[in-house]
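Morning F.,

Quick status update on the modeling queue. The single chain you submitted on Monday has been processed. Sequence for confirmation:
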Amino acid sequence: MEKILVTTDQSGNSKAAIRFAIKLSQQRKAELIIVYVYHLLKPFNWTDNAFEKHGDIFREKTMTELTSFIADIYHEMHEPELRHQLVLISNMDMVDGVMEYATRHACSYICIATRGAGILTKIFGTHTAKLINQSPVPVICIPSAYHLKEIKHVLYASDMTDYERELAKVVAFARPIHASVEMMHISYSFEFAFDKKLMEATLKKKADYEVTIVNRKRDITNDLLEDIDEAIKVSKPSVLILFTHQSRSMFEKLFYPSNAEDYSFYGKIPMLTFNKNESN
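Structure tokens below.
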């Protein structure tokens, strides 16, 4: 059975990601795993036995609080509780703990809440940026202000390199939830203009799924995100899908332009990122 992992710190900001993960798990008939990462520091004058007892009390209390926190979310959604796992992970680094668990348990997706648009630290929290940059498991970033909607349409932004392999992953995400797929390529004026109908027919045959093509011309006077933003305004996708090279300098260059707050899709729609270099 497919597994979907969602992280929480039991804050209000994390609720959007949990709601999204619950709905996605329902649609995909997947197992839902809700993860809370913690780290306890041992006072220098405590014995090992005292610290162990303290840890047991902390974990029991946290599990009780987490159970109530998740139950409240289901209640707010007016949904019956899905079968899910609540997992407490001890790790100094939240992202390392999540990645290690997700990889070891073969999770298909990691869901994490972001804090929305604004200055650099508000666009993507450091945990989200690190997950996108390092996780071998695809990451779905859910804006904390996102209002849960049915996933009906996904927009896949492609640079047309290795697009057949990438499209297979996009379709694998879209097919179980019966979402339409639109493949967007932002091209330069010197690039070869492909035949839209022929390309769509070819992709349908190879992917065994209906794929719509949109080709937008690149305006070199704009940031790339401005072109993506304009395409999103037209497409109105439920989810934006990107394949990224896991390089922090590239990631910052693409997602942290000085005027990033001007792009309307920040803080509005979920974004699914795959590692472009992942071979599987």
